[in-house]
Write a structure and sequence with these properties.
Blueprint: E1 22-26, H1 55-67, E2 72-76, H2 86-94, E3 101-106, H3 111-121, E4 125-129, H4 135-142, H5 147-160, E5 166-170, H6 180-190, E6 193-197, H7 216-224, E7 229-231, H8 233-237, E8 243-247, E9 253-257, E10 270-273, E11 278-280, E12 289-290, H9 292-296, H10 301-313, H11 333-336
Parallel strand pairs: 1-2, 1-10, 2-3, 3-4, 4-5, 5-6, 6-9
Antiparallel strand pairs: 7-8, 8-9, 10-11, 11-12
Helix pairs in contact: 1-2, 1-10, 2-3, 3-5
The protein binds S-adenosylmethionine and iron/sulfur cluster (SF4).
């Protein structure tokens, strides 16, 4: 049986031998929060509705990708729960053969109502973004006073059995960097698996600054003041972006995705599809491949598959954030799909 690290498993192989096995699908660019590291306070235009791929179009692209070796699909956005009828899309993906694993990254708003219907439709897991449990800091970070709704959403995810429930957090200097240990304690108390993500240069305001970014080393120092952390090492990590540590001897773990200070591009197995049908081989790619036009003008599955294979083959070695010539992608994280 071929594995996803074996090029024979699929045709989505790049020039460096990396094989795409994970497809991130953005289902909308809209959002009901305005996290400072992602969106501007106001003034971002939404994609016109006719440009969004329909569920049928999304499922067709995902089915072709599954035929090429994609084994897990993650729904994201913008805020994926804002896309009306999302459980229907999940059910369509869950009916594919072979059935991919289906996960979702969400800010948790509305998950209290949707967790069970999504689970029933076939969703396997969720990551809920929550940067702090301090109401004032949450409101500063997201520019909305919605902490209670996120907490409700997390509880509903656990009740629905979307396990393990993971929490994604970005540490921002002067806002929540000093309270990362409080967030870990809260996640441990509730049985959620916490992972920090280093802030990446993907904010709409272009305010990211390498010199003030909170690094993995700093996060670990702060956590280490309160918890004993034991590294789980490369084997536990596989191609996952998060490095993980046992907390106080386990079984609980905490992860850090050090996308900037310790890039994991060499093990990247991801491809991305934006809500308007643009295929990307990297979060930081400066160019996208338009799949929507061929999709809507009669291209066959084989032709679309060939375009995916060609895009993946041209994937760059790394994101190049530290290169002097690095330029942030034209779209912010919310429009690419995190
Ligand atoms: N709205 C959903 C959410 O917040 O979970 C899904 C989309 S969001 C773009 C996906 C993930 O990207 C979230 O966990 C968020 O914290 C993370 N993210 C957004 N902007 C980021 C940035 N500049 N650097 C690192 N992570 C970022
Ligand atoms: Fe919205 Fe998610 Fe971006 Fe926050 S990180 S603004 S919740 S898309």
């Amino acid at each position: 049986m071929p594995t996803t690290t074996d090029p024979a498993a699929g045709a989505l192989v790049d020039a460096f031998g990396r094989v795409a096995a994970d497809l991130r699908v953005s289902v909308t660019d809209r959002c009901n929060l305005r996290c400072t590291y992602c969106m501007p306070a106001e003034g971002l235009d939404w994609l016109p509705k006719p440009e969004l791929l329909t569920f049928e179009e999304l499922t067709r692209v995902i089915a072709i990708a599954v035929g090429l070796g994609i084994r897990s699909v993650r729904l994201t956005g913008g805020e994926p729960l804002l896309r009306r009828g999302l459980p229907e899309l999940v059910a369509q993906i869950a009916a594919l053969e072979p059935r991919p694993r289906i996960a979702m990254t969400t800010n948790g708003l509305g998950l209290d109502r949707l967790a069970q219907p999504l689970k029933d439709a076939g969703l396997d897991r969720v990551n809920v973004s929550l940067d702090t449990i301090d109401r004032e800091a949450f409101t500063r970070l997201t520019r909305r006073d919605r902490l209670d709704d996120v907490v409700k959403g997390l509880q509903a995810a656990a009740d629905a059995g979307l396990l393990p429930v993971k929490v994604n957090a970005v540490a921002m200097r002067g806002v929540n960097d000093e309270s990362v240990a409080d967030l870990l304690q809260w996640c441990l108390d509730h049985g959620y698996e916490l992972r920090f993500i280093e802030q990446m240069p993907l904010d709409a305001d272009h305010r990211w600054d390498r010199s003030t970014m909170v690094t993995q080393a700093e996060i670990l120092d702060r956590l280490g003041e309160r918890f004993a952390l034991t590294p789980l090492g490369a084997e536990a990590r596989g191609s996952a972006p998060a490095e993980t540590w046992l907390v106080d001897g386990g079984p609980a773990v905490v992860g850090v995705i050090a996308s900037v200070s310790q890039p994991f591009c060499g093990a990247c197995d991801r491809m991305r599809l934006t809500a308007d049908g643009q295929l990307r081989s990297c979060l930081f790619a400066r160019s996208e491949h338009d799949l929507r036009t061929p999709l809507r003008s009669g291209a066959s599955d084989a032709e679309l598959a060939e375009q995916m294979v060609r895009l993946m083959a041209a994937k760059k070695a790394g994101h190049g954030i530290d290169d002097p010539s690095f330029l942030q992608p034209a779209r912010p994280m919310s429009a690419i799909g995190g």
